[in-house]
Amino acid sequence: MAAAAGKEKWMDWGVAARPLAGQSVSGDLHAVHVFDHSLLLAVIDGVGHGREATAAAQRAAAILGEHGAEPVIALVRRCHEALAKTRGAVMTLASVNVRDSILTWLGVGNVEARLFRADANTFPATENLLLRGGLVGLQLPALHASVMPLSPGDLLVFATDGLHTGFDQRINLTETPQQIADGILERHYKGLDDALILAARYLGPSP
To answer: Where in the sequence is the domain holding 53, given as residue range(s)?
Structure first.
């Protein structure tokens, strides 16, 4: 199991990942980038597994690193052009405007994402990203990003299809993002594909 964690000035995050048995590399990658007044979170799943899947995911991750301050729709289109000669990938991106505490997210394919509200009185307590069918590098759907407010303490969780459905159950919001990611992978790993969980807690704008 591979794991990574980090804490930026606006976000505390953790990752847990596991390649398909017998593989030395994974086609499931994450990206976290911080800019002047925004941050970008992404999970990319290269089609299939092994080195070709990894190469596609790495190419998309490089594009996000170079252009990550752009709007999420523009980023998906850039990745689509760059992945044209690869296996392609599915991906979910989430951009946070920290000045206004606004989340803009978009998913193409089947990388699921959930937003868990820190305030128990908020309705709904959980938001699910509406995914759009397609394959980045091969066929894009009409791209429409969703926008919503964020509050300090809100938790974002991304999961690739190497996890069983129901991965968003039994999450203890008092745990750290790394503990949450590790727990989800331990409970819900299918064992049939690469898998990755990214959990990120919004800390709010700096004082």
So the answer is: 2-202
